[in-house]
Amino acid sequence: MEKFTSITSRVLPLPIADVDTDMIIPANFLTSVSKAGYGENVFRRLRDQDSNFPFNLPQYEGAEILVADDNFGCGSSREHAVWALMGWGIRVVIAKSFADIFTSNSLKNGLVLATLPDEKVDGLLRSASRDEVRITVDLPTQEVRLPGDEVCSFEFDPFRKHCIVNGLDDIDYIMSHRDAIAEFRKAQDRHRYFRSGTSNH
Questions:
Q1: Per CATH, the architecture of 6-168 is what?
Q2: pTM of the predicted model as reported, rounded to 2 decimal places
Q3: Where are the domains of the chain?
Q4: Which pLDDT belongs to residue 174?
Q5: Read out DSSP for 53-119?
């Protein structure tokens, strides 16, 4: 997993509520056996239907912060939706709320999700739809720095924060404690040995 601490980027606005995982990556594009290649088909159906869909517009090219409306990532549990967003280059999604399974998949893959108050999200969606808006998302401090030096805090799971800041997926995290695990196993073996020796007397 790539480390994430802080990012400053233009905002890509997506003023749509209830964006589901099939919208993010349509089922007919779930063909790869790896994470690679999904980015090119993110929101493919909507991009093909509407030339003015935000992901088609040149002014948002290179944006790494997506701002959406309410209940982002609802629908099926497909992890591919997260892979597609990250493959496009999105590192942070800001929304009013997120679906639970999408949240879990995002945190395991290092996609940072920030829930902000409705009025802050609405303001970002409006302003970014008119002009270029650049904001900073800082995970260690759990802050979003908005235009005009306004700062909003967001909640984040402490364990997942530790993993993302240090670039650790679940396996990496376990392996980072391998010495402690080995010592624990040795202690358990010694305990079993002494118990066994005692029972033989």
A1: Alpha-Beta Barrel (3.20)
A2: 0.85
A3: 6-168, 169-201
A4: 57
A5: SGGG-GGGTT--EEEE-SSBTBSS--THHHHHHHHHT--EEEES-B-HHHHHHHHHHT-EEEE--HH
